[in-house]
Specification:
2 strands, mainly alpha
């Protein structure tokens, strides 16, 4: 059974083996967990962290520690920000589990392709962040979380780059 974590990452059952990332049809994720994840409802417990002040609504998503390169300048810039429930990268990669499911080596693909793009998107958003873009990001996150049909990565990037 999947546990929900207030730290920002869904954690599989204690004692389960495998990659720290999950892809669609990961056997460690229950049917209920998959449904919660599909509509991003597994993120709701993090609202407690927002109320406590340890997270914000918008900010870089917490990353699995083994993927963080602490000496890297870009990582340092991203990690200076308070983590958030949503960010541009998590919205753009809302279908990350599906993308990873098609990869032969999920861990290597995540490290080589997805993670660098997420870092780039977070840095880009931090540089141009304003109230208008934050409101747009919150709206689009809610919209595509509850109504994922019509999700279009390129449209999101265009709309949040204005």
């Amino acid at each position: 059974m999947e546990r929900l974590s207030l730290s920002g990452n869904s954690v599989p059952c204690a004692g389960s083996q495998g990659s720290p990332i999950t892809a669609r049809r990961d056997p460690r994720v229950t049917h209920v967990g998959a449904w919660l994840r599909a509509f991003k409802l597994d993120e709701l417990p993090q609202l407690m962290n927002v109320l406590e002040g340890t997270m914000s609504l918008i900010g870089p998503r917490p990353e699995v520690p083994e993927y963080v390169r602490s000496g890297d300048e870009l990582w340092c810039r991203i990690l200076e920000s308070r983590p958030g429930i949503t960010d541009l990268a998590s919205l753009v990669f809302r279908d990350e589990e599906l993308i990873l499911a098609a990869a032969a080596d999920r861990d290597a693909y995540y490290r080589a392709v997805i993670l660098p793009e997420k870092l780039h998107l977070n840095a880009r958003y931090q540089q141009s962040r304003c109230l208008r873009s934050d409101l747009k990001l919150l709206w689009m996150t809610a919209r595509y979380s509850f109504f994922p049909l019509g999700f279009d990565r390129e449209r999101i990037l265009r709309d949040l780059s204005r």
